Amino acid sequence: ALERYASIRDLKAEALCGTTVSLHMNAGLMADLPSLKGSGAEGVGLFRTELQFLIRNKMPKRAELSALYARVMDSADGKRVAFRTLDIGSDKVLSYMKPNDEPNPAMGWRAIRVGLDKPGVLRMQLQALIRAANGRPLSVMFPFIAQPSEFRTARAEFDKAMERERILGHPLPETVEVGAMLETPSLAWAPDSFFHEVDFLSVGGNDLKQFYFAADRENERVRRRYDTLDVSFMSFLDHILARARSAGTPVSFCGEDAGRPMEALCLAALGFRTLSMRPASVGPVKHLIRHCNLETLRSVIDESRAAGDESVRPAVTKWLTSQGW
Ligand code: PEP
Ligand code: MG
User: Fold this and answer.
1) pTM for the whole thing?
2) Is the complex ipTM higher than 0.95?
3) Which residues, if any, are the signal sequence (predicted)?
């Protein structure tokens, strides 16, 4: 699949209306990094750090993590990598941590909640990331932020780690960006100040959709029951985009939907200018965006909404068909 799109690999995802969408890839293991060149992605929009914890049978040491993150940054060769701190709990359980028997792990003690309650591992990870950057730019984001105070506390941990490194005389990152994943609906209505204080936001569409529709993303019976192109969800995304826009905060979308061409196209038409997806999706998504007019699609979407459709999918499908797709 990567070869098929090789001819557009170095071209931008510029739509017919002139809008350019920045396409990034999701990664989590060293083995994913070579795809950065092959796919034509502009960077790693989501680096799931828990994968490297999950493939081990004991807790990695700080020096080991730092060497690993340095290799990730080396392989990215100056392209941006947004490191997401550990998102364990839920479906991702570490064999070397005490198991928690929870009735609803997806809504349980996971991600930043673990990081804030037991900050040892979070601190180690932040320090490893700062050391790995070794004077290069660093982007870090915290998963599953449900309210601003969680972000503030996590960011304070990051600032403390920076201060510690400074006192030790270690080189600090050239630039630092600290962001939050928006994957719980509550965060979309956080006070304005929150949207101003994050350096960037990344919508975790998989979790956000699961909590928006109250439909377990792991449950085969319900996981495809609600459409991402449902007008209710689209209005919700509109709201998130408007809030980020008024604060001047960059916002990307990094769930699985960003890698589905029709969904990606609609996300771009709504206003997302950065999408992060599995590497094999970058080519197909870019190909489609380059052949579509996002402004026209936006009016197709708006007309479908105005007509009272439940989902804009039929209207978008019809439009794409009329365009020869
Ligand atoms: C998401 O929730 O959309 C996301 C990108 O994170 P994960 O799939 O790792 O939960
Ligand atoms: Mg998530």
Assistant:
1) 0.97
2) yes
3) none
